[in-house]
Protein: Signal peptidase I
Organism: Microlunatus parietis
Amino acid sequence: MTGDEADEPRPRRALPPEDDDSDADTAEQPRVVPERRETAQDRPEPQHAAWPEDEPAEAAEPEPESAVDVRGGRDEDEDDEKQLTFGQHVLVFFKELAIVVVGAIVVAALLRAFVGQMFLIPSESMLNTLHVDDRVVAEKITGLTRGQVVVFADPGGWLSGPEAPERGPFGKALEFIGVLPESGTDHLIKRLIGLPGDRVRCCSADGRIEVNGKPLDETEYLYTDSSGRKADPSDINFDVVVPAGRIFVLGDNRANSRDSRCHLGDERAGMVKGENAFVSTDLVVGRGIAVVWPFGNLRALAIPSTFSDVPAGSPPPNKPTIDAGPDANC
């Protein structure tokens, strides 16, 4: 090879033509937009799950109340209570006590007036059914029935025993409201034998008292002495018809009882002879239902079975019919 040939530049190899797509790709590239920061207005609102229509929504639980305030102090009511003086505590106590006592007195007075009343037995006229110093409750709701033990005010002249000692003002107040039994001597207690229209007589062929023709078996309640001997039904003979609005009564201890038999000969102004022997139903306070004191005598006062089949009486007359001997006074 010669020198000239060495200096002569060699021809360059032709490069393959570039792909036209590169220009296209370069032309189609998107512009880059600067990124903008997200603001609160761009954020979507939170979506709450819908509550099923067929199920009730649960109520929000209330926050528990605290007895201590935010300052760490005690409950205000407790503070007020602590601030009460000893004298104020005593005043509150007696105020509440007075309310209780007055309420009890009102209730007792209403019960005494409309329901029942307690009585003290002063005599032996109802032995062995009732004893001296027994406390008997008389109720005022039910009507009168043969065989009942009844309490009634003195019709006039029936009471002749010594007067009971008079109670003081406090005792009278307790008696009035029914806490203590009625101690006065203006009431009596006997057994009801005849109702208005009943014919009551003594005695039958076998010595018993008859009501509307039915002899009474009084062994259940007549007085029995310590030897076991029963009292006689009556040592006074009589045959009476009870007038309207009146009742005929006898004591269970017949030999020691001033009852209807003992007044068949009474003569009083404005009355026929013997009319005072029949107790007006207006004077009846109630029927004895139970002995409540002393506990040793505690029992109910039931109606004896012998009165269960007594026939009904006749229409009562306005005035009594009385056939009694000269001994019709006790």
Notes: The helical segments are 3-7, 21-28, 76-83, 86-114, 169-177. The mean pLDDT is 79. The domain at 115-324 is CATH 2.10.109.10 (Umud Fragment, subunit A).
